[in-house]
């Protein structure tokens, strides 16, 4: 979890392998994972909030090829997991 990322506020980035990353942003400061943790499907990583530049509680999900903020490109997740 990180308070970095400008408008995204508190966030978690997960490395899925094969150069695929997801970002979960605008979450509460009560992040439930730490850098380096392995997460499993269905595990709680955080809770929706309105951190960062937000007008209300929501979860921002992004899927990237490459590390977000480090040259990663956003992609349509339906092309990966359909």
Summarize the structure.
The protein is mainly beta and 82 residues long. Helices cover 0% and strands 26% of the residues.
Rg, alpha carbons: 12 Å
Task: Quickly give the structural class.
Answer: mainly beta
Number of helices: 0
Give the biggest beta sheet.
Answer: 4 strands, antiparallel
Overall pLDDT metric: 89
Strand content: 25-35%
Q: Helical proportion? A: under 10%
What is the topology, as strand order, of the major beta sheet? 1-2-3-4
- What is the general shape? globular
Please write the string of helix (H) and strand (E) elements.
EEEE
By oligomeric state, this entry counts as single chain
Alpha-carbon distance between the two ends? 28 Å
Q: List low-confidence stretches.
A: none
Number of strands: 4
Describe this structure in words.
The chain is mainly beta and 82 residues long. It has strands at 11-17, 20-25, 60-65, 73-74. Strands 1-2-3-4 form a four-stranded antiparallel beta sheet, with no helix packed on it. Strand 1 and strand 2 (20-25) form a beta hairpin. The radius of gyration is 12 Å and the shape is globular. The mean pLDDT is 89.
